[in-house]
Design brief:
By secondary structure, this protein is α/β, with parallel strands linked by helices. The protein has two domains: 2-129 and 310-372, FAD/NAD(P)-binding domain (3-Layer(bba) Sandwich), CATH 3.50.50; 132-304, FAD/NAD(P)-binding domain, CATH 3.50.50.60. The chain is 28% helix and 23% strand. It has helices spanning 11-22, 38-41, 73-87, 170-181, 207-214, 219-233, 249-256, 266-271, 313-316, 354-372, and strands spanning 2-7, 27-31, 90-93, 97-103, 106-111, 116-123, 130-131, 145-148, 162-166, 186-190, 197-199, 201-202, 205-206, 261-263, 275-278, 281-285, 288-291, 295-297, 301-304, 308-309, 342-344. Helix 1 packs parallel to helix 10 (354-372).
Length: 373
């Protein structure tokens, strides 16, 4: 029997295992993929951390300065590989855990490769786990290409094509810019909810560093600060179809995880007419995509940057520890009464950055496990 079983060999699981090791608590990390950092390996190629390097490291090992201020996808993967070696973590790949069950006073992870028993479990399967594509009417009969953003790698297959990107989160914004720079003939962005734009950096201050301070303030005050900052540092895009959104950005993030767009080129592309704003997608009809407002377009391809589900229902849904969104009701050093000894990390999405949050969670989990004996 393991002392602690960590499910997921992404940054959250590795951070938790490293902190447990620092407290002399043995932990085994398992992952269904054949290598650590699988999600990062499969993100689109131009992706960089939206948080500055020096706030984004995991506990006990900083990201090398040679990776620059904004760390690229491939360098994040290299960092996580080095992290495993640096902390001498025990990682078993190719192990898919399907269900977690309580048996007497320990936990059994039902795996296709054989059951695993542990006194405590850390669930770290990732925020972006299961691609979520809305059930658009007629989508199955669309004659063009329809993919989720999880399948998008780079703009090469879309050079010279008409592409519609659906969704105004950071992923949709970056993919739209990537398509423009990669030679797509036409790029449109379908918008349901008008986003708030913030600059990645204002003067010498990275947005993520400022956000660390903002997290200590009351949400309504943060709403006001973000609104004022957005108005001062980003242009009014009403002329291109994106009026400024109403107040309450931080409150909305706390309620439903809707983060602002950290601009890495979309504003310039919109102002230059390289990305066109259209209404929300309501359905498909043959070669046409039906949009809100009784309009339609006929793109060659549609990239649905419509987010992810956490995919925890099969694993722990029967334990009644998830909220209405399918996310854990507790995280970090807390466990739910229905699942004593089960910790969750990586299921929140703060303005100050995911990696920093994982670092905080890992330390709290390790302390809680150590205190539990």
């Amino acid at each position: 029997m393991e002392d602690v079983l960590v499910i997921g060999a992404g940054p959250g699981g590795l951070a938790a295992a490293a902190e447990l090791r620092r407290h002399a608590i043995p932990a085994v990390v398992v992952d269904k993929a054949d290598a650590v950092a699988n999600a990062w390996r499969n993100h689109y190629e131009r992706l960089h951390l939206h948080t500055v390097r020096w706030t984004s490291h995991l506990p006990g090992y900083k990201i090398p300065r040679r990776y620059g201020q904004w760390v690229a996808r491939d360098d994040v993967v290299r960092y996580l590989e080095d992290y495993v070696r640096h902390h001498r973590l025990s990682v078993r790949t190719g192990v898919q855990v399907d269900r977690l069950e309580r048996v007497e006073r320990h936990w059994v992870a039902r795996s296709r490769q054989g059951d695993l028993s542990a006194r405590r479990v850390v669930v770290a399967t990732g925020y972006n786990h299961t691609p979520d594509v809305p059930p658009w009417p007629g989508a199955d009969g669309f004659s063009g290409e329809l993919i989720h953003a999880a399948q998008y790698r780079n703009a090469a297959p879309y050079r010279g094509k008409d592409v519609l990107v659906v969704g105004t989160g950071n992923t949709g914004a970056e993919i739209a810019v990537d398509l423009v720079e990669g030679g797509a003939a036409r790029v449109r962005l379908a918008v349901r909810t008008v986003p708030t734009f913030v600059r990645r950096q204002v003067g010498p201050l990275p947005n993520s560093a400022v956000s660390i301070v903002l997290r200590r303030l009351p949400p309504r005050l943060v709403d006001r600060i973000v609104d004022v900052s957005s108005r001062l540092n980003t242009p009014d895009l009403s002329a291109v179809g994106l009026p400024r959104p109403g107040p309450g950005v931080y409150t909305k993030l706390l309620a439903d995880g809707a983060v602002p767009i950290i601009d890495v080129g979309l504003i310039d592309a919109l102002q230059a007419g390289q990305v066109e704003v259209v209404g929300a997608v309501v359905g498909f009809d043959g070669d046409k995509v039906l949009l809100d407002g009784d309009t339609a377009v006929a793109p060659d391809a549609v990239v649905a940057a419509t987010g992810y589900k956490q995919g925890l229902d099969a694993l722990v849904g029967h334990l009644d520890v998830l909220d209405h969104r399918g996310r854990p009701r507790v995280h970090g050093g807390h466990t739910h009464p229905n699942a004593p000894g089960v910790y969750f990390t990586g299921y929140t999405n703060p303005l100050s950055g995911m990696f920093r949050e994982l670092r905080i969670d890992a330390r709290r989990i390790a302390k809680a496990v150590a205190a539990d004996g």
